[in-house]
Design goal:
CATH superfamily: Hypothetical protein apc22750. Chain B
Number of helices: 3
Shape: elongated
Radius of gyration: 20 Å
Order of helices and strands: HEEHHEE
Structural class: alpha+beta
Strand content: 25-35%
Helix content: 40-55%
CATH topology: Translation Initiation Factor IF3
Number of strands: 4
Mean pLDDT: 84
CATH class: Alpha Beta
Low-confidence stretches: none
CATH architecture: 2-Layer Sandwich
Number of domains: 1
């Protein structure tokens, strides 16, 4: 009887984690879509140099960074999946959200400086843990997007 009670508690916690984590993720995706649309006029390129036929004013380094963490349901599902091996698809949305959020923040920084283009855009991603040197059970990653913002003349 006690085992059933404990399994019920675990199931309830997983259900809460799945529902709250999913709602948070969906809200973040909606926010990203809205902010990406607002910043679509800021062009982003990975080329090292801008076109020579255009004149630009000032250039400045801009960056956007974000730390995205997992929810408990994803952690549980990833733990089960890692027992059998294979792709951890449950983390793909975390990675997608992180990259997109870093770009949005970089574009917002470029807009604040009056820039219309960002060249030589690069990404950095690092895994963070609460205790450096020890394997952490919490997955969180920092995403940084940076580049050279160019103001038109």
């Amino acid at each position: 009887m006690e085992l059933l009670f404990q399994l019920g508690i675990i199931s309830l916690l997983l259900l809460i984690g799945w529902s709250i984590g999913g709602a948070t993720e969906r809200r973040h995706f909606r926010s990203l879509v809205k902010r990406e649309a607002q910043l679509r006029d800021i062009l982003v390129f990975n080329e090292r140099r801008p076109p020579q036929d255009q004149a630009f004013g000032q250039a400045a380094l801009v960056m956007g960074s974000v730390v995205i963490g997992e929810d408990y349901f994803k952690r549980f599902a990833a733990t089960l999946r890692s027992l059998f091996g294979g792709t951890l698809r449950m983390y793909e949305s975390v990675m997608d959200r992180g990259r997109r959020e870093a770009i949005v923040r970089m574009k917002a920084a470029a807009r604040r400086q009056g820039a219309t283009m960002v060249f030589n855009v690069r990404f950095e991603t690092s895994s963070l843990s609460a205790d450096a040197g020890q394997r952490s059970s919490v997955f969180s990653a920092e995403f940084i997007a940076y580049g050279t913002a160019l103001k038109p003349r």
